[in-house]
Amino acid sequence: MTAEIIAVKGRRVWDSRGRPTVEAEVHLSGGACGRAIAPAGASVGSGEAVDKRDGGRAFGGYDVLLAVAAVNGEIAEALIGHDARDQAVADALMIACDGTVDKSRLGGNAMVATSMAIAHAAACAENMPLWRYLAKGCDEIFLPLPEVQIFGGGAHAGRRVDVQDFMVVAVGARTYEQSLEWTAEVYRAAGTLMSEAGLMQGVADEGGFWPAFGSNEQALDFLVRAIELAGFAPGDEVAISLDIAASDFGRGGRYRLAADDREVDSDGLSEMLLSWLARYPIIAIEDPLGEDDPEAMARFTAAAGEGIQIVCDDFICTSAGKIEAAAAIRAGNTALIKPNQAGTLTETKAALDAARLAGWGSIVSARSGETEDVTIVHLAVGWGVKQLKVGSFARSERMAKWNEGLRIAEALTQGGGALPARQSFPWGQRL
């Protein structure tokens, strides 16, 4: 089937927080079509591609009519006539057309939606789902290990607690399906415990429980209890992962812990987190220090040891250059990969390749403002990324992604594709 781009269409749709976002649709000469929607983050790193928003009074300034116009106008004009199967050329055309470092002229939201839609259209032209199209030539294809939010905090839940995500990882599960089953049991148990204790407050942005905890450590205590109530061994079967999102409550090496009513410096925050590592079954900590605190990040990475994932998000913003710089000072050991931070799939893949070259692990991640779009699941599987962070085990914009993984797992099993006998972290240690 021929794959020349003949039409590019943008439209305004809505995300899980009721905010406008951009959907792009790409049509090819052979009849294939691809569609994708840009997500948006609540906790945003300073190095991210900039979403184009209209400003003004409509929808609190978050409208995207200018970004949609960019898709229908300049982006479409730049892309029409080019082969969708050459993703790098298509993305380079958009980058050149935008002409800014941060994609602010046309909008990172306009560009990432179009970039993902191009990939879907190219896969359709080859009569393949996107994951299989991206994985062409791979001998083995694995499902990623889910990282699932149980309690939301920070910017996702009115800052009731400082830590942004309290998550679980079913490290003892043998299959993707089993990892979801175990997570569902923990999620249900957590809800039961919170209800019994009178701590149920609502639902956070990513679907986790919005807690009424009195401290960060109370959340950890409840999470361990939930794992046990669900019938699993904390640490051995189901472990804890945290997203501290320290840039949201710290600047210049000073951090304000509102839930604990105190302020600490970099060493004080590190000391608190290291004490948590000693007391709780935590195997991963994301953004433990602020993006403007690289030396402290390097010290924390060394102190935590090789058996703990130190995940960089705001610190590296899905940038190959930032990953190389962080790896050079040994600040972190795992890259969070978010396509909308980079702005195009080509740049996203370059960041993933930089992480692998540095010997880092990687996690493909969703954002707080999501939709029914399931592209990131296909990217994780097709690119061979061993972990996937989507949010919680509730709300359709999250479950659409977890459920897409089940369909891919079924296709792999029927088609002879390999599923891992036991999930493990990227460097192969049993944690």
Give the proportion of residues in helices: 25-40%
Distance between the termini: 47 Å
CATH superfamily of the largest domain: Enolase-like C-terminal domain
How large is the radius of gyration?
A: 21 Å
Largest sheet: 8 strands, mixed, barrel
Regions with pLDDT < 50 over 5+ consecutive residues? 415-431
What is the number of independent domains? 2
Strand order of the largest sheet: 4-5-8-12-13-14-15-16
And the CATH topology of the largest domain? TIM Barrel
CATH architecture title of the largest domain = Alpha-Beta Barrel
Strand content: 15-25%
- The number of E-state strands comes to 16
**Molecular shape:** globular
Report the oligomer: single chain
Output mean pLDDT.
91
Describe the protein in words.
By secondary structure, this protein is of the alpha/beta class. It folds into 2 domains: 5-127, Enolase-like, domain 1 (2-Layer Sandwich); 145-414, Alpha-Beta Barrel (TIM Barrel), CATH 3.20.20.120. The chain has 13 helices and 16 strands. The strands form 4 sheets. An 8-stranded mixed beta barrel has the order 4-5-8-12-13-14-15-16, surrounded by 6 helices. Helix 1 crosses helix 3. The termini are far apart.
